[in-house]
Design goal:
By secondary structure, the protein is an alpha/beta fold. The protein has two domains: 146 residues, Quinone Oxidoreductase, Chain A, domain 1; 147 residues, NAD(P)-binding Rossmann-like Domain (Rossmann fold). Strands 3, 4, 5, 6, 7, 14 and 15 form a seven-stranded mixed beta sheet that branches. A six-stranded parallel beta sheet has the order 10-9-8-11-12-13, with helices on both faces. The longest helix is centred in the last third of the chain and has 15 residues. It is globular.
Length: 329
């Protein structure tokens, strides 16, 4: 089978496309013919050995796939021919065949294409966990989303209104990214810095009549973090999902006292890995929304497998628009 291979830790440019043996079949696992694979920021970190998970070289990156079941164990709830999306862990996804445990495989609604389905799980389940479990999003609240044109950002813009938010404010760096954010569901868009030098914090303050926002979704980190805390309404929460901006910020905890605000870590993987059945609970809520169209599937940026290096690089250099997916077939 064809697969993406990381043979050295020299960054996305060193990614290779190779022919390797199909993975060994296990009696307790599904075999999936992979149509498409999602690309995420951890994949970029893995190419440089900068992620906490450090697989032995060489390895196949990729954590999420969509495809057709080739074979399934009895009692798994799946059968050959089923359309599915699946999580493969933090590797092995970017290949034409995957062997996956049933508890990380999910039926894909007919309303969602296999290409779009490859970009649903990692971001949407992360954001669902962030908003529902960690952020305690309540009906009618206002959500601010940093990195709003990226994969996590557009997922937050799609999900927050469905889960109860009455207003979703997107923070982006360019007008072009603002259009992506609006298409994903943003009710308001602010630039990190306007032409007159006004920053996003002042724009958000004006939009909310000085009150601030109830929830901040932040996969970026960096130097905007303190202003995110300042932008919270009383009892507001800032959700820490990552640091694509490169710098891990620090918090002066006295700021948390002023308006009784929370800084909340969002470690979706650490959560579901110690809670059997949690993923199924999440999908039970999201699948009907996707099937009905109430929650739209992401419209990913699609690269062919031969352009895997470019796809992963787009996450590293933050040029990616929305979710990025590799088309394997």
């Amino acid at each position: 089978m064809r697969a993406v291979h990381i043979t050295s830790l020299d960054g996305p440019e060193s990614v290779q496309i190779v022919d390797i043996d199909e993975p060994a079949v296990r009696d307790d696992a599904l075999v999936i013919d992979v149509e498409a694979a999602g690309v995420a920021y951890p994949d970029a970190l893995l190419t440089r050995g900068l992620y906490q998970y450090k697989p032995e070289l060489p390895f196949v990156p990729g954590s999420e796939i969509a495809g057709i079941v080739r074979s399934a164990p009895e009692g798994s709830g799946f059968a050959p021919g089923d359309r599915v999306a699946a999580l493969t862990g933090l590797s092995d996804g970017m290949a034409e065949v995957a062997v996956v445990s049933p508890d990380t495989v999910f039926p894909l609604p007919d309303a969602v294409s296999l290409t779009a389905g490859a970009g649903v799980l990692f971001n949407d389940l992360t954001v669902h966990f962030a908003l529902r479990e960690r952020g305690r999003l309540a009906e009618g609240e206002t959500v601010l989303v940093h990195g709003a044109a990226g994969g996590i950002g557009t997922s937050a813009l799609r999900l927050a209104p469905v889960l109860g938010a009455s207003r979703v404010i997107a923070v982006v760096s360019t007008e072009a990214k603002g259009e992506i954010a609006r298409a994903a569901g943003a009710t308001d868009v602010v630039l990190t810095a306007d032409a007159d030098g006004t920053g996003w914090k002042d724009a958000v303050k004006k939009l909310t009549d000085g009150r601030g926002v109830d929830l901040v979704v932040d996969p970026v980190g960096g130097d905007r973090f303190t202003d995110s805390i300042r932008s919270l309404a009383p009892s507001g929460r800032i959700l820490v999902l990552g640091f694509t901006g490169g710098e891990i910020p620090t918090v002066k905890v006295n700021r948390l006292l002023l308006n009784n605000v929370d800084v909340v870590g969002v470690g979706w993987g650490a959560w579901w890995m110690t809670r059997p059945g949690y993923l199924a609970t999440q999908w039970a809520e999201l699948e009907p929304l996707l099937a009905s169209g109430e929650l739209t599937a992401p419209e990913p940026t699609v690269f062919s497998i031969d352009k895997a290096s470019d796809a992963i690089l787009s996450l590293e250099n933050r040029t990616a628009a929305g979710k990025v997916v590799l088309q394997l077939k």
